[in-house]
Amino acid sequence: MNFFIVVSASVSILLSIALFPLLRTNYLGNLRGPWSPSSLVADLVVSNGTIYTSDASLPLADSMAVRGGRVLRVGNYSSVQDLAGHGTKVINLEGKVVVPGFIDSHVHLIFGGLQMVRVELRGVNKKDEFVRKVKDAATNLKHGSWLLGGGWNNDLWGGELPIASWIDDVTPHNPVWLSRMDGHMGLANSLALKIAGITNYTEDPNGGAIMRTTDGEPTGLLIDSAMMLVLSHIPEVSVDERREALVRASNLALMRGVTTVVDFGRYFPGASEELPWEDFSEVYRWADSSGQMKIRACLFFPMDTWSRLQDLIHEKGRKLSQLLYLGGVKAFSDGSLGSNSALFYEPYIDDPQNCGLQVTDMESLLNMTIASDKSELQVAIHAIGDRANDLILDMYKSVVSTNRMRDRRFRIEHAQHLAPRTPAQFGEEGIVASVQPDHLLDDADSAKRKLGAERAQRGSYLFQSLLANNALLAFGSDWPVADINPLRSIKTAMKRIPPGWENAWIPSECVNLFEALNAYTISAARACFLEEDVGSLSPGKFADFVVLSTDSWDDFVAEESSSVEATYVSGIQAYP
Ligand SMILES: *[C@@H]1O[C@H](CO)[C@@H](O)[C@H](O)[C@H]1NC(C)=O
Ligand SMILES: *[C@@H]1O[C@H](CO)[C@@H](O)[C@H](O)[C@H]1NC(C)=O
Ligand SMILES: *[C@@H]1O[C@H](CO)[C@@H](O)[C@H](O)[C@H]1NC(C)=O
Ligand SMILES: *[C@@H]1O[C@H](CO)[C@@H](O)[C@H](O)[C@H]1NC(C)=O
Known about the structure:
Elements: H1 3-8, H2 11-16, E1 44-47, E2 50-52, E3 60-61, E4 63-67, E5 70-75, H3 77-80, E6 89-92, E7 97-100, E8 102-107, H4 109-116, E9 118-120, H5 127-139, E10 147-152, H6 164-167, E11 176-180, E12 185-188, H7 190-196, E13 208-212, E14 218-224, H8 228-231, H9 239-255, E15 258-263, H10 274-289, E16 296-302, H11 306-316, E17 324-332, H12 362-374, E18 378-383, H13 386-402, E19 411-414, H14 422-429, E20 432-435, H15 439-451, H16 453-459, H17 463-468, E21 472-475, H18 486-495, H19 513-520, H20 522-527, E22 545-548, H21 553-558, E23 564-569, E24 572-575
Bound molecules: 2-acetamido-2-deoxy-beta-D-glucopyranose (NAG) (4 copies).
One 2-acetamido-2-deoxy-beta-D-glucopyranose (NAG) binds next to loops.
């Protein structure tokens, strides 16, 4: 049955056809939670909307009352109207769609915020665009901060090398350093040259060159070892910059309707495991204690440091405040498809000796998982290739048989390429599949090239199979690897049409609108143990919700322009 078509009919038809077996017939006036009905006055009542709650006991409603930052009652207007009293703000939604605040199950928030003010010049093929991108980045930046970026390739616009005067006018207050894609050359603006003390009279260092005009004036381009003249003046990313990055990233998240993120930190194989802890103590705790947390964040830490997290949770609990939660621990089992390091049963077509890499040895992964799990920490492991996924599922199974029974919700991050029987194993073991729909847009062509059409077609991004096998499917973005944009991701998961493709990549794996919404809300909340607080518009949970620009489910899916009109966190408008 096509759920989507059903819902575009009327609510009453929907309710009558038992799509939600748990639906109570007399749901609208029901009160749950600790409130008494008579004396309560709501802070906020939103009415006349098209509200999807992600709560299976009452999926659709038109009105909602909020008090003390939490949902007080959801239903039709006549059932919430008595809660509107003196001082209640009432908003007529004029039919607009409202959904629970999106939960992005996999981001690198601070890293993403840092990237936002770095210029990405990869693929730029016009001087105008080069200059515009630098200009846009400068407007986000405090005076005096370095504007960094790169990836430019002058061959794409005919070969002319860039010079400082291209960008001096748009970057008067910020020193700039933009490296070429090959890393052997970079462009400084005039302010950066000045800070580095590079003048007409500076001599070329050994092994490098300062490009100059025929008159001998530096153009801004520095080659090889001459780059150090500027690089040595660029400060390490400071605590202040990381704090700004968090705020900037949170504002972007709110703009896209994201009210909760699961943050996997600035952590990649080989990175210092100190970084996420530094970000926690210097950035997140600062934000939390100074009122700068704008969205909810649930933090994961490197698995090697599990005992540190255990101690912290023992001391403070998982919920540090209404906005900051300690999640669990994260490790890697393999690499990525793009770098031919995701671990498969069969070799890469474009690299026939190579099946990928196991980046952490299984014995230490098993030991750490057993220890983390015994300490009641949630475990999340990165696995992309089919073999990596199976290795982790088997490992999880043996941990479950070693440690006592408990509600552990082991996670696999990405779960991108799966063998035919693997979705069933996710379901049987109750493993969370934390997946990123938008990656399928970027991967479709390279998967065909690297795995061959048959393998790519058989086992990639098996969202519907995972759902059909009762796996807990949680959506996310992996931002900044892909954009943080749930509305786009939802459409991607429904349509699965990569750029330049006519048809869906594995049409049978498309999910419907409400499956996608659930994966971005209630299932994502369960996937990180936050379902008591967020994930659905249910009485007692935080009133985190998003008002969309559209008033019908058809438009939500069809129209590319359906966008976030407002985002509320704890019943307070946080965007715009
Ligand atoms: C609204 O909810 C109340 C309480 O459940 C119910 O009696 C009433 O019929 C509903 N009204 C509409 C228009 O659905
Ligand atoms: C509800 O919104 C619609 C627009 O979708 C509007 O025509 C109608 O007047 C509104 N109803 C109320 C009671 O405000
Ligand atoms: C550097 O050389 C250029 C070109 O000869 C000249 O216009 C400029 O004034 C010189 N700058 C300094 C600081 O000497
Ligand atoms: C894993 O734990 C076992 C038993 O405690 C121990 O003998 C072994 O050395 C550990 N292996 C690794 C790689 O840590």
